[in-house]
Amino acid sequence: MTYILYAIGLIGPFFLIKYRERVGDMIGEAEWMKKVGGVYSFLIILAFFVFFWTLAEITGTIDIIFGPIINIIPGLHQNAATPAPDF
Q: Measuring CA to CA, which residue among 52, 49, 47 is closest to residue 16?
């Protein structure tokens, strides 16, 4: 099952970029999409994000690639007990 999802995650963004006009017309343009350049720009950003997320999942580097993003967003970072520095 995971191989099918990986294939969809690698091939899907290609078709999302290729048919972005049809998909964009189908979902419509929300007000917040105008701030990132419109519905077509949002679909391109989404396609790149899905592609790189899938590539990171396949290679097992999800923590390395998306680690800085997880540290920035509050609530996603697991607060581990940090040891006190030994000076």
A: 47
